[in-house]
Amino acid sequence: MAEYFIDAKGLQCPGPITQLFKQIKEAQSGDVVTIEVTDPAFKRDVESWCKKTKNELLELKEENGVIQAKIKKA
Length: 74
Hints:
Blueprint: E1 3-8, H1 15-26, E2 32-37, H2 42-53, E3 56-63, E4 66-72
C-alpha cells in the first residue's frame, strides 16, 4: 500500500477534485491519498465524489481553514 499527498490549498472548484482524480487514477487499489484544500465546497464535493466512484473516504476534517481528506482507492 502506498500513500500519496496532494497540496491543493488555494485552488478553487474543480481544481482539488481534478487533482484528486488524477492521483487516484495512478494509484493502486488499497492506496491512500491525502489531500489538503482551502476551498470550503470541497467537503461536500469529496463526499459525493467518493460515493460516486466507490472510493472510501477514511477521514474528513477541517482545522484552521484547511480541509484534509484521506481517501482509500477501491
